[in-house]
Amino acid sequence: MSSGFRLFGLAHMTILAAIPGAAATLARLGRGNPRRSRQIAASLGRCLAVNEIIWYTWRFHAEGFRFPEGLPLELCDLTLWLTVAATQTRVPAIFEFAWLAGLGGSLMAVLTPDLWAPLLSYPTIYFFLAHGGIIACLLFLVWSGLARPRPGCVWKTLVLLNAYAALVGAFNLVFHTNYMYLCRKPSTASLLDLFGPWPFYIAAGEVTAWIMFWLLWLPFREQRACVITPGT
User: Fold this and answer.
1) Environment class of residue 5 by beta-carbon count within 10 Å: exposed (0-12), middle (13-18) or buried (19+)?
2) CA distance between the termini of the chain
3) Reduced to 3 states, what is the DSSP secondary structure of residue 155?
4) Phi/psi of residue 61, each to 5°?
């Protein structure tokens, strides 16, 4: 089924602008008031979690339990729940993985969305709420001053990401699935189209992830890394 979605059309550009716009507006509301910022972060995380639970409920009602292709094993599934955890706890290691892998992955998702339903349908609305919500939550944590990645987080995140990809790849091999697009590219246009056929696009994606992680770390290299804990 075609979604009829126009890449970088008016609707797409509006969505792309609204995500950082919402994060910046909320960060401004909490500026100078750490307690209010923590409350906003917690509320954002809860909204993200509720949106995901509603999605799981809708899918189960519409499709039933689908194994092995219907499991939440995509990278964005993992980073969504880590983002929820980061908004509630602000644990440094959780935030850092979410900031690098979650922000990087969700940015690619909203820039080149892999959609199968019409724009004004629940699956598409959910897609942008989930991926856009990850981005907005993480930007808010940084722009409000609640979180900063620490030195060394790029390499740690790359190691953890590859470990997760290895587990998902083993699942793909056993059950003939395609989680994280490790076996084939998405059917819609994506950055992977520039990286050649399988398995070359996986190696190129690894390099791209490394570059993207460093770019996401770059703004903080001269800053003292810190994460504000719930009690402060």
Assistant:
1) middle
2) 50
3) helix
4) -70, -40
Is 187 within the bounds of a domain? yes
Position 184, amino acid: R
The count of other CB atoms within 10 Å of the CB of residue 90 is 20
In tens, the pLDDT along 178-216 reads 999 899 887 766 777 778 888 888 999 899 899 999 999
pLDDT (mean) for 111-118: 83
- For 150, the token pair is 């620490």
The amino acid sitting at 105 is G
Express each pLDDT in 30-80 by its tens digit: 988 999 999 999 999 999 999 999 999 999 998 888 899 889 999 999 999
- The whole-angstrom separation of Cα 168 and Cα 146 is 32
Query: Please, where are the H alpha helices in 64-199?
Result: 75-89, 92-97, 103-111, 122-143, 153-175
What is the total count of domains within the chain? Answer: 1
CA 230 to the chain's CA centroid: 23
Structural domain including 182 reads 10-220
Residue 231 counted as domain residue: no
ω into 219 cis (within 30 of 0): no
What is the reported pTM? 0.88
Give a yes or no: residue 225 inside a domain.
Answer: no
Inside any domain, residue 135: yes
Q: Which H helix or E strand runs over 105?
A: helix 103-111
- What is the spatial distance between Cα 219 and Cα 133, in angstroms, rounded to a whole number? 22
